């Protein structure tokens, strides 16, 4: 009943659920993974995300399931890992696909804000945000919340191990990141 508990909390506290699924297969396969399978993600997750490596069909497959349920999608335009292939032409094509499917794609997992075009109003969520470390030795590269929000113009910081990592107090760490992100946002809008 975890999904039932989570969706009840989301409704009670007015928040959206983001399943960081990172779909990465052909349209029909992701359509089935999203709508059915073990997790039935579309039945409870407001937002999910996908790589565009398989092409436009991945968006179409997810859209067929998610749009009627008032769900939305983030596209992985960039990643925070060293040596990522998600850059250059891949990122440019991803942004073009997002613009084509604005009724379903609401933004990006990205390392920076892209140039707006034709009234773009995308959300930019940035992974790899850290206050205390810059790398993990396995390719992860963390950026400070100020760099991500103020300097690069992103809207949401995605923090994992900085909050729940070994020996950390999750409530205390979440507060630290919330304050750092909010202060960077206030600095950005005061420009």
TrEMBL record:
Superkingdom of the source species:
Eukaryota
Q: Which InterPro entries match?
A: Aldolase_TIM, OMPdecase, OMPdecase_AS, OMPdeCOase_dom, RibuloseP-bd_barrel
Q: Which GO biological-process labels does this protein carry? A: 'de novo' pyrimidine nucleobase biosynthetic process; 'de novo' UMP biosynthetic process
| Xref: Pfam families | OMPdecase
Q: In which pathway does it act?
A: Pyrimidine metabolism; UMP biosynthesis via de novo pathway; UMP from orotate: step 2/2
Q: Which residues bind substrate?
A: 80, 140, 160-161
Q: Which residues form the Orotidine 5'-phosphate decarboxylase domain?
A: 1-177
Q: What is its EC number?
A: 4.1.1.23
Question: What are the UniProt keywords, alphabetically?
Answer: Decarboxylase, Lyase, Pyrimidine biosynthesis
The record's top EC class is lyase
Q: Which GO terms describe its molecular function?
A: orotate phosphoribosyltransferase activity; orotidine-5'-phosphate decarboxylase activity
Q: Where is the active site?
A: 20, 22, 25
Reaction it catalyzes: orotidine 5'-phosphate + H(+) = UMP + CO2
Q: What family does this belong to?
A: Belongs to the OMP decarboxylase family.
Write down the PANTHER family for this protein, in alphabetical order. Answer: OROTATE PHOSPHORIBOSYLTRANSFERASE, URIDINE 5'-MONOPHOSPHATE SYNTHASE
* Database matches in NCBIfam families: pyrF (TIGR01740)
Which protein is depicted? Answer: Orotidine 5'-phosphate decarboxylase
Organism per entry:
Lunasporangiospora selenospora
């Amino acid at each position: 009943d975890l999904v039932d508990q989570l969706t009840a909390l989301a409704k009670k506290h007015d928040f959206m659920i983001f399943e960081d699924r990172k779909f990465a297969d052909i349209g029909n396969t992701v359509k089935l993974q999203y709508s059915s399978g073990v997790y039935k993600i579309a039945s409870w997750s407001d937002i999910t995300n996908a790589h565009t490596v398989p092409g436009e069909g991945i968006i179409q497959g997810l859209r067929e399931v998610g749009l009627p349920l008032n769900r939305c999608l983030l596209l992985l335009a960039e990643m925070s890992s060293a040596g990522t292939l998600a850059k250059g032409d891949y990122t440019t094509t991803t942004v073009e696909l997002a613009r084509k499917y604005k009724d379903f794609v609401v933004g990006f997992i990205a390392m920076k804000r892209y140039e707006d075009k034709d009234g773009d109003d995308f959300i930019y969520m940035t992974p790899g945000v850290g206050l205390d470390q810059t790398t993990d030795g396995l390719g992860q590269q963390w950026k400070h919340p100020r760099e991500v929000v103020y300097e690069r113009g992103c809207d949401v910081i995605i923090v994992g191990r900085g909050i729940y990592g070994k020996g950390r107090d999750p409530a205390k760490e979440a507060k630290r990141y919330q304050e750092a992100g909010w202060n960077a946002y206030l600095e950005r809008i005061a420009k």
